[in-house]
Amino acid sequence: MQILGFHTVILLLAGVVSYSTARAKPLSFTKIQHSQVTVTKDVVGLWRSKGEILATPYFDNFMIKSQYNPNPGPQGYAFGNRDSDTAGAERILFPKSVVRGYWHWLAPFRDRFIMIEARKKRVAMVSVKDGRVTEYSDIILDLFKPASDSRGEPTGQETAAARKEFLKRLVDWGGDEPMISGLAPLPASWHRRQGYDSYLIATRLPGFSLLKMDCNRKDGLVCMITRNCFVEGLKTELKKQLSGLAISQHRKLLLMADRKNHRILGFRWDNCHHIPLQGEMKVPQKLQLVRGIHIDESDHLWLSTQGPDNYRNASVYKWKAEDWSIKN
Question: What is the pTM assigned to this prediction?
Answer without folding.
Answer: 0.90
